[in-house]
Amino acid sequence: MSDDEEFQAEADEVYAELLVRIGEAAPQPRLEPTRKACELLGDPQRSAPVIHITGTNGKTSTSRMIEAILRAAGLKTGLLTSPHLVRVNERIVIDGLPVSNEALVRNWRDIAPYLAIVDAELVADGEEALSYFEALTVLGFAIFADAPVDVMVLEVGMGGEWDSTNVADGQVAVFTPIALDHQARLGNTVAEIARTKAGIIKPAATVVTAMQTLDALDELTEAAAHDEASMVVEMRDFALESTTVAVGGQVITVRGRAARYEELFLPLYGDYQGQNAAVAIAAVESFLGGGTVALSPDVLAEGLSTATSPGRLQLIGVEPTVFVDAAHNPHGAKALAGAMTEYFDFEQIAVVIAVLGDKDAHGVFAELGSIADRFHVTRSHSDRATPVDELAEVALTVAPEESVLRFDELSEAVDAARAWAVAGPSRAVLITGSITLVGEALALAESGGWKP
């Protein structure tokens, strides 16, 4: 038994203790409890400089690319990202690897008494105890300080202004494309959502942003001006100049802030991943040299070539070909449909899909209808999953009745889709619509022995 396997049961207990707290579907719009817990622990969020990332789509992939480039540059990195697909360890990454069970358990034991103090004070004041995400964020900071790391790359859980990661002060604030999502929590317009996300901008920081709608860019510009932060904007200060389809991904050329970087291999599909890479390069340039020092071509080549983005157009099966993608809103679904068309030449695609109840299912189906020859409608085990019959009615607005099949279990939907794909030439299966569904599909492929 390895050291990590020895601590597996205790790591599972840590996760169980986190799960009894208020879940991520109902985040608490507050910072003070997280800040208090961090103060009691000696402010571990200040133990290393921070790059902070928010946005609606692409923030996980961009975070991972930033981390990979920094690691290639010789820095010891800490990456806090969410959600996880299979195990909670995936959210807290040290030097490119999920935190070990031993470190997870040891740091949880260290911080638990301090979390209990904050919980007791909150309950005494009539407030909810620390939530799942608040406690997990504190745990991540503690693990990074314990490692210790040279730099923290923090992905916002939701929004920005009151997200618990915002107790840290980012030297660089990164914004991926902002679109409508989580309207019940963040606002009903892109401008309102951008205003909430702009809360991660700190005084004198550098703001690096992907292309945005004018409404979103106006909000970011106003927030940056208020905090005397400098703005670095895609297409003005940096850009993805070209991308070419390659075996296993794409080859990109990027005009960075300090130099032009030619023919970099990126093992990820989709032009949007090339744009994410351009944002990541500009962010690292801003962090390491204030945007005036060129990055080493060797560092960039190594960093991008090793970048991964689990659950984002990820191949999880061959014979037949099966992909998973975590697209769960119309903006993400549109990018996914474009990538499937531009990077692959399958003649027919079966889309296995489940969508959570608080998402724009109509918008997702509208975007995927152009590539789907059939929909296998199902649901994940999340208590927020849309019922199968209800979701099927949405599918029928973009597809004929004979192309919409209903399955109560993901395993049944996937088995039927794989059997259909094997029966005809040039067919593929795409599993999408929900991050929880993707996680379950990965576990299914692993247990079924068909994951490559």
TrEMBL record:
GO cellular component assignments: cytoplasm
Gene Ontology molecular functions: ATP binding; dihydrofolate synthase activity; metal ion binding; tetrahydrofolylpolyglutamate synthase activity
Keywords, in A-Z order: ATP-binding, Ligase, Magnesium, Metal-binding, Nucleotide-binding
Cofactors, names only: Mg(2+)
One Pfam short name: Mur_ligase_C
Record's keyword annotation contains ATP-binding: yes
Domain called Mur ligase central: residue spans: 53-284
Domain Mur ligase C-terminal: residue ranges: 311-434
Enzyme Commission number(s): 6.3.2.17
Entry keyword Ligase: yes
Gene3D superfamilies: Mur ligase, C-terminal domain (3.90.190.20), Mur-like, catalytic domain (3.40.1190.10)
Chemical reaction(s) catalysed: (6S)-5,6,7,8-tetrahydrofolyl-(gamma-L-Glu)(n) + L-glutamate + ATP = (6S)-5,6,7,8-tetrahydrofolyl-(gamma-L-Glu)(n+1) + ADP + phosphate + H(+)
Annotated family: Belongs to the folylpolyglutamate synthase family.
PANTHER family the record matches: DIHYDROFOLATE SYNTHETASE-RELATED, FOLYLPOLYGLUTAMATE SYNTHASE-RELATED
Name of the protein in question: tetrahydrofolate synthase
